[in-house]
From TrEMBL, chains A, B:
InterPro entries named in the record: aa-tRNA-synth_II, aa-tRNA-synth_II/BPL/LPL, HisRS-like_core, HisRS/HisZ, HisZ
Cellular component, GO, one term: cytoplasm
Biological function: Required for the first step of histidine biosynthesis. May allow the feedback regulation of ATP phosphoribosyltransferase activity by histidine.
Name assigned to this protein: ATP phosphoribosyltransferase regulatory subunit
SUPFAM superfamilies tied to this protein: Class II aaRS and biotin synthetases (SSF55681)
Length: 377, 377
């Protein structure tokens, strides 16, 4: 391996984004953030690094094993490099912005770092872009966050956007009402996560209901209808009704969106306190984002969603290069400026005489001549 | 201190950027990058973290004492969190993009982290946005980079943009030609850095020339005229002529720019191999950016400049808030969409009946009524 190649070698899971991808990512993030801003979501920017105990507090605890630590030489305390921006935004909402009127709408976009990649996401650095709606317990809040993130993907021209809805609170609430506890409850929750009907059949009197909950999973309208047919105890029925209301509100805003419901899914929603969802695209296997209801600062009702920029970008067709024109040295700069205002990329010739061959070498399709644009052959 | 306040406490030099500042910074960076892109600078995005030896190679060595380190659990090698993006971009140019036609124009924007702040810049995290022009030794390249960064600041409405030019190669070259070496040369270089005419008078036969070099510092036109009057030995004269040519090219493009020259300044340009410059604004003391000529990968002629986003933002008047309108629940969503397309920020009412008082509470100046926009009193 040459010295040059050696120097180019980055740690596994980290990479240089090159032209035109880096500009494309920045433009996509910008488009997302502008879309959220138009709906009243105001951007916050927490630091890349902060004290470990605030970074890993509450919902942040889930990222503890993914988080790089360094010591702060000033305070001699440990700091963590954020592995997720969501807990930071919740911290800002419940501390610095505690006095701001609710519902509070915040947005964020930035890079996160993880100690190790996963099989599904080998990258150790990727971008997040998301929104949080804090201080409202309304189903309209759940629907707004889902609709805005799904619509953001649709507006980017992500093909075949779909959303899987989950209700991670349903089973715990139902088990509580059914008196299903201890080892049996644990075994049944695992069985439900795996849609394991055989094991569920051992749940005694609850078995038929659990089997019907598994069977209800599928396209949202059918799933909601099936759930409405079930005789659920009051608290579980309230959860179900809330989910139905969210689906109804989402349907009203985005009637064409592919929406599925899995009422027994819990995995990946361990910290959620209500409706959760995952965003997919037709052309890639990875999640494009996820969201759901939680308690900000452990007490305040909130819902939010995060888009994973690496997955979002891989679902997109990629950038279209802009038209490039070589502007020879000594050209009146107002002429070049006028071209830029029309959308041209102007590349200045640095040496007198730079013309056709230089334009070709630099990937310019045109040269600005004394009488106008000349095609490069 | 309450638990809440405690959790909000960040390490010294790190901070949460809140609304509306975070969106404003992102918009300013975006405007800068779009401006550079229109001149053919293509964006690259190196990772936040990479192997220590590649991060601190060459010009990166200057940031060694500012750089946080963490161990990579995968390779068991040390990694550094970047304290400066410039060495990363030079690495990309001379390795991954080694085969791309020169001159190569690259841009970058991102966050850097430093172990400690300085008196002038207490922040330990700040944004950089910059350009590199790699593979040209032409004075036109120096001028292009200076003009584009100064013009970028002017386009942002930074008040009173000025540029201080330095020529850190002049004194070493001159001393070589004059046979000034060893301890005397060192003492004279320090004296020149401090404009210490008394010490310079002890330089023997070189003393009058050095005194005139100190005296030449000032507004560019006068400084260049004074330098042209000096009888310099050939290599020093060539350096002087190059600087004069850069000034001439910058003047042609930006005749109104305040431009000063300090021909004996060396501090802060230790790694530069030609013309260097520092960008200032009338209303703040800190540098807004700096740039200059260097050798990318130790061998390839290059010039570039970096803007420091914290300083740039503090020189700006700040964002103007967009007009906000509350859109009551159940409003036809096409009406809200039409308002957004006109530049309105639409804030959805989450509960039926949200109207005037809710709008007022949420900082909306208007409510969308059945017959159009209503002013909030």
């Amino acid at each position: 391996m040459t010295d040059f190649a050696n120097r180019a070698l980055l740690p596994a899971g980290l990479r240089d984004m090159l032209p035109p991808d880096a500009a494309f990512e920045a433009n996509v993030v910008n488009q997302l953030m502008n879309g959220f801003a138009a709906h009243g979501y105001e951007r916050v920017k927490p630091p890349l690094i902060e004290f470990e105990e605030s970074l890993l507090d509450g919902a942040g605890a889930a990222t503890s094993s993914h988080t790089f630590r360094v010591m702060d030489p000033l305070s001699q305390r440990m700091m963590g490099l954020r592995a997720d921006m969501t807990p930071q935004v919740a911290r800002i909402a419940t501390t610095r912005l505690a006095q701001v009127a609710r519902p509070l709408r915040l947005s964020y976009g930035g890079q996160v770092l993880r100690v190790k990649g996963t099989q599904l996401r080998p990258e150790r650095q990727f971008g997040q872009a998301g929104i949080e709606l804090i201080g409202s317990d309304s189903p309209a809040a759940d629907a707004e966050v889902l609709v805005l993130t799904a619509e953001a993907l649709i507006n980017l021209a992500v093909p075949g956007v779909s959303v899987d809805l989950a209700l991670p609170t349903l089973i715990p609430v139902l088990f509580g009402e059914l008196g299903l506890t201890g080892a049996l409850a644990e075994r049944m929750r695992a069985a439900l996560d795996h849609k394991d009907s055989a094991t569920v059949a051992e749940a005694g009197t609850a078995a038929p209901l659990l089997a019907r909950l598994i069977a209800a999973a599928g396209p949202a309208d059918r799933a909601i209808a099936a759930l409405k047919d079930l005789a659920l105890p009051p608290a579980a029925a309230a959860e179900r009704d809330r989910l139905a209301r969210v689906v109804e509100l989402v349907r009203a805003d985005l009637p064409g969106l592919t929406l599925t419901v899995d009422p027994v899914e819990n995995r990946g929603f361990e910290y959620h306190t209500g409706v959760g969802f995952t965003l997919f695209a037709r052309n890639i296997g990875a999640e494009l984002g996820r969201g759901g209801r939680y308690l900000a600062g452990g007490t305040e009702p909130a819902t939010g969603a995060t888009l994973f920029m690496d997955s979002v970008l891989s679902a997109l067709a990629g950038p279209k290069p802009g038209p490039r024109v070589l502007v020879p040295a000594g050209t009146d700069r107002q002429r070049a400026k006028a071209l830029r205002e029309q959308g041209w990329i102007t590349v200045a010739g640095l040496e007198p005489g730079d013309g056709m061959s230089e334009a070709k070498r630099l990937g310019c399709g045109h040269v600005l001549g004394p009488d106008g644009l000349l095609d490069v052959q």
